[in-house]
Amino acid sequence: MYLASDNAAPAAEEVLQALARANAGASAPYGRDEPTRRVEAMFSELFGREVGVFLVTTGTAANALALAQITPPWGAAIGHAEAHVMHDECGAPEFFTAGAKIVGVPGLDGRMTADGLKALLARDFWTPPTHVAPAAVTISQATEAGTLYRPAEISAIADVAKAHGLRVHMDGARFANAAAATGAAPAELTWRSGVEILSFGFTKNGAMAAEAVIVFAEDLVKNLAERRKRGGHLWSKGRFIAAQVEALLENGLWLDLAARANATAGRLAAGLESRGLRLAFPVEANEVFVWLPPSADDALRAAGAAFYAWSSESIAPERSGRVGDRLARLICSFATPDDDIAAFLAVIDRERVA
Amino acid sequence: MYLASDNAAPAAEEVLQALARANAGASAPYGRDEPTRRVEAMFSELFGREVGVFLVTTGTAANALALAQITPPWGAAIGHAEAHVMHDECGAPEFFTAGAKIVGVPGLDGRMTADGLKALLARDFWTPPTHVAPAAVTISQATEAGTLYRPAEISAIADVAKAHGLRVHMDGARFANAAAATGAAPAELTWRSGVEILSFGFTKNGAMAAEAVIVFAEDLVKNLAERRKRGGHLWSKGRFIAAQVEALLENGLWLDLAARANATAGRLAAGLESRGLRLAFPVEANEVFVWLPPSADDALRAAGAAFYAWSSESIAPERSGRVGDRLARLICSFATPDDDIAAFLAVIDRERVA
Amino acid sequence: MYLASDNAAPAAEEVLQALARANAGASAPYGRDEPTRRVEAMFSELFGREVGVFLVTTGTAANALALAQITPPWGAAIGHAEAHVMHDECGAPEFFTAGAKIVGVPGLDGRMTADGLKALLARDFWTPPTHVAPAAVTISQATEAGTLYRPAEISAIADVAKAHGLRVHMDGARFANAAAATGAAPAELTWRSGVEILSFGFTKNGAMAAEAVIVFAEDLVKNLAERRKRGGHLWSKGRFIAAQVEALLENGLWLDLAARANATAGRLAAGLESRGLRLAFPVEANEVFVWLPPSADDALRAAGAAFYAWSSESIAPERSGRVGDRLARLICSFATPDDDIAAFLAVIDRERVA
Amino acid sequence: MYLASDNAAPAAEEVLQALARANAGASAPYGRDEPTRRVEAMFSELFGREVGVFLVTTGTAANALALAQITPPWGAAIGHAEAHVMHDECGAPEFFTAGAKIVGVPGLDGRMTADGLKALLARDFWTPPTHVAPAAVTISQATEAGTLYRPAEISAIADVAKAHGLRVHMDGARFANAAAATGAAPAELTWRSGVEILSFGFTKNGAMAAEAVIVFAEDLVKNLAERRKRGGHLWSKGRFIAAQVEALLENGLWLDLAARANATAGRLAAGLESRGLRLAFPVEANEVFVWLPPSADDALRAAGAAFYAWSSESIAPERSGRVGDRLARLICSFATPDDDIAAFLAVIDRERVA
């Protein structure tokens, strides 16, 4: 019953096999290898246009590099107040940007809105050179609340951004889950809706460690290679990142795995709700936030379930917990066994009877 | 005939197998996994003392993190004038140190000497706060010239360093080659000789991508975890770095592979010398620097040999080339086929006859 | 009627005279001059203990240097959500700290409270190395709302800080106004209440450009000289900063000038209130925040009054404006002519009659 | 006999008077004042074209800001190996550029040559993203050796720079001395010869503390205001920097003062040579580097003369000292009394007789 994070999952078998296949003979280093070439072409095909591709191995690196491309040291990158880039990367965006500000805007269900962004930009502390200049917007897809942005919502945010001269980044650590859940084309979820640079995550979705910075806006390719090298993120044996990504992109494996994770989360959520438990956020991808009575929480942990206690200021009033309830975050991966879900719900059943 | 770098080698089979073994079920993320625990213990045993272990996946990251631990922004890290950290990491040390200076000291055969270091430290531009303060020494083992430091040489440098309050780093991207070639114990090559923090490379020696920052000086552990996270170098699925390292440390595989690379280089060097070609540096590990007549250089490239043209100001006068000669760097890895060496020499033979 | 800021004031006559006196013959550069020596002694006497003194010429430099001494790149400095260091220094603290986070805590009347700080520190995103570590607290004295902290309030905040291992900074850009208004001894307002490093501002209070970073905690002296030099803030002709400070410290001129500014603000506030206008914050030093009906605002501006339109989320409900009212910030300096206050109030009188 | 540096001089009387004149009533802060406006116009007139003007108060700040405008973090700024920006600013250029490299090129008499630059650029470690990219050239006028660049030399260097895509900075901490000595028009010494951004120093030449970053290349104005603010170098009471500069620009006072310093140095040099002492560099501006026999050195110091012992690898063989000689750096300012020169030479006379 490991539901603490999808990053605890193993790699997909196909990924391991691809690594083995790639492990033959000498290969030009530093991304000049064949698998990297192929992956670049696959991304361009996937997105229906030429894109820049920069492979790295952590989401933190992908986000920090992407944000550094669009946020000068005296600029601000604006995201949802509870976004991963705000809190969970130990200041990596500040490091890679050489000291920019990462500014949060509140919003229900973990989602920033175009109106919220507009309101923030209308505030009066953006006068250079006294203040930092708003430079970038970063949209988490899926959000830290496990919710999604539809293309129209992304467009609305990007329109506000563009009207103010801001560049648009998407933190797609769980982009696959979003794509699988919405059924929207990758192009619709990104560049057609105004996204200019994307952190496309594979690690949580079946890779060992692979993330791609995908660049849609041509001018944002410049010097990204230098930033990556300087950050220590250019692998010499680049084929071993590319092989992972290739395996996942092939035949839509990435979407299959994400759909599986989403479906498992959906079953878990349904099971919880049918047992009278309240969900703090709509379950739209592979994350479930549920209010647990202390006794259920305790019983689950006693039974060995692993999950995080959570807190959020982004919960809609009608979804708030009862007094004493504890908020739990449950994340399903492509590899979460159905048995774990059943066992998890069984603990709750037992606890309610008791 | 790929002799451009050992980083073009594949991974060792044992490493691939270890990845497959590690790929089972959920595992605590961010280095809290079992393989990482085991690897930490293995390093402590290998070095004969408690050490701090921080796994990353590039040598640039390992060096930059290590140097940042020992060089404040207003400090200088001193290394050989042609060291990798000086030139080949796109300023990663400057980035991770927040703008320290990396200062070169010349020395024959790619080696810094205790006297050279002493002379540099005696120069008159180290008066704070006008000047940056010398803070660290970084020793490349093996050097960019493929030469080695013996324990006594390391001690001599470290003694000068300590007398001036400098901390001592070793860039061991090819530490395995040095250990295999000298037969010296890892402890002798490091902490017993005054090294306080080590970048221990595995990537060039059979890993897919794995490097360990090994910390001997207890006070240098502090905040290294934060630096690694902030640099985007903390893998969520940490077991997959650890598994690589474990496979290489087990039963001394790392030494076997390095010895194989060294031996291949030795055969190549002998073959070149026996054909009347001059070596620019003594061949002590897995790198061969040879002066090629233009015709030989051209013939080799025409035959498909891959290697770098080189230049160095560190060559002993008696080892300089003849007028017109071109300096070539040839690196052998554990996976360099004997046939490649034979083919390489055969081209030279054919060219001499012609 | 220039009430936009006290930084628009000229320098005090005594300061100009001191500069002229200091302008005689050669003098050792870089702070090794006599006036600097004397000023150091004066500060130690003023604070009743040995202190470290680092003169610079802008409040931004003083704050950024001080915060960099106490906040590592992976740390957070916590201050009031509307503090100057948060918004008005173009990211200077982020720059000098090499990318730390500056985190805001809300609080009424521009003041952080010990409880607010405690609540923030109890939040769940301070787990290293995922999150940045809270490292410092910065207290603005006077606040951006023109309000003050009494020694007991400072102590309460510092106690929370210390219990959590945080260092304590005071941004005293208007420290003189606070000292004059409270009558508290400088020692009471700082180190006796737990402040470890202080930005002591003179520029707004009669200097041309002079600020002192005063260090109470001995360990915080280390490397501040290097930071200042590296930031370009070490003057060669240091006597000309020192002379300004000396003139202001002599015979308590700094307190006299601040008291004059405070008194002028007090008269202005009383005049506004007696005319039925509501103040948004208690007037405790030299700043007045008043709700103006649009017609009054327009009339004042038409009459040539210079002041900033303001906004704040820190206003107590009972002090909020009437619908349509505009919030104005009025700052008095030691040099604000009484006639300006009279003229300002006269415009309001005329406008009310009309 | 204070000859240690021209930065030990007082301010010119005219500067003090200008400060007093500027000290009247309220003035818009942050460089929006009248004196700043006037100074901007004066610079445009002086250089015979529109220029961007950014006033600061230290040469270190001016240089670091200018270099940051033209050198990205993954770039290199190239200057003479003994230039001030290399060694004497505690890494300020590295700080403001966020970790660029400052690379030295050797050259006789403290001067970089076009050929030296070309040779450096032809070296083989400039391949991105492995290596940092050469981005900027910085020319010190006058050099650390007190020598000058003529317009043709500047043009030659700038031509090489431009051919390689490098931007051109001039560190004009002693630009006035160079202009006075060469008689060349400021335009000839800068933009007409390819200089794109200039640190124009006034502090050593009669100001209290005033330096101007002068921007000739229009695209280099962008974000310089933000860099200055963020570095803590934007004065609120900007009129007090501007007033200094205005006083010096008015009626060519800056040239008169510099000419006086140069003439004094010329007399000193002639006196030394006529006494059989050898100069290490040609005396072209206000600095004299002389080889002193130890007895003369000791006698001068005993007599209270203040000057620096020096060393340089840039001395022409025919100008090297006799065995045992000590190299002394003597700098004259506009305020160096003739009596000091006479007294200095008298000590030498006495010592020779003895």
From TrEMBL, chains A, B, C, D:
Which residues lie in coiled coils? Answer: none
InterPro entries in the cross-refs = ArAA_b-elim_lyase/Thr_aldolase (IPR001597), Low_specificity_L-TA_bact (IPR026273), PyrdxlP-dep_Trfase (IPR015424), PyrdxlP-dep_Trfase_major (IPR015421), PyrdxlP-dep_Trfase_small (IPR015422)
Q: What class of enzyme is it?
A: lyase
In short, the EC number is: 4.1.2.48
Entry superkingdom: Bacteria
Residues covered by the Aromatic amino acid beta-eliminating lyase/threonine aldolase domain:
3-291
**What are the alphabetically sorted keywords of the record?**
Lyase, Pyridoxal phosphate
| Entries under SUPFAM superfamilies matching the protein | PLP-dependent transferases (SSF53383)
What does it catalyze? L-threonine = acetaldehyde + glycine; L-allo-threonine = acetaldehyde + glycine
Similarity-based family: Belongs to the threonine aldolase family.
Q: How does it assemble?
A: Homotetramer.
Q: What does this protein do?
A: Catalyzes the cleavage of L-allo-threonine and L-threonine to glycine and acetaldehyde.
Q: What is this protein called?
A: L-threonine aldolase
